[in-house]
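Changelog note: in this version the structure field was regenerated for every chain. One regenerated record is shown below for reference.
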Amino acid sequence: MRSVSTAMRVVALYARLRMKPRSSSVSRAQRRLRRPKGPAEPPAALRKRHDVSARRIDGFTCWTVAPRGREATRAAVYLHGGAYVSEIAPQHWALVGALADAGVRVEVPLYGLAPQHTYREAYPFVTEVYRRLLTEVPASGVTLAGDSAGAGLALGFAQTLHALGLPQPARLVLIAPWLDLTLGNPEIPAVARHDPWLSPVGLIELGRAWAGGDDPADPRLSPVNGPLTGLAPTHVYIGTRDLTHPDVRLLERRATATGAQVTTTVCEGAIHVYPLTPTPEGRAAAAEIVEETAGRST
């Protein structure tokens, strides 16, 4: 078994002390829902390196981060995590910047967050962003990616493409996807005891807000229940100290049964969204994500 880096242990301790309390009870989750949303603009360093622009689509902002001084033949749509209630964070922009450094144009749709907004607004918005991107870049050059809640939205959206008459992207890259808002998998409680970041009780409350009164088991909310046939090749990154790991294993089993191409990279001892963490494990996974998105992986 590969040893866990000291940096990963430090990040896990920070998450336990600072992050986990935010969703450790229903009341704390409700306070998180009521908290004002913070800024969501790209950092100044990213603007200095790349061509960064914003446009409004269906009432929401979509940022475009494009490599400066060269034409991008590859593109990605990146959907950020944050339990559907938190704005995009610096670690998300860091990965977006790394993708642009590698020559990838990145569309970053800032979908509306709960409780003011629900998935019912997010799906049409992401659909229009994707549809417009395909007028400039062929689907064979597009990666659909996301982390945590954003990865769940990415998979749910990909499952709707056939009905919309839109092509699948070249690939999906899912970082620790939140695949089931109900967190009803019987394997989750055992893993949750060792997750230093996430607590089921609070996440379920946040998921209810995102569902806006609809059935949280609906595939658009819990894409582990959705169709996998015809899905683009999918690469999932997951740590073993992540309560979303059991549902990733369930997704693997469903993919095997339906013939879908789902590849999973499991990092022993890693926490939630580990490719976004400042650790050796995170940097290695982020580099792999950039390579496959830029079309450089073999």
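Spot check on this record: The two ends are 26 Å apart (CA to CA). The first helix runs from residue 6 to 19.
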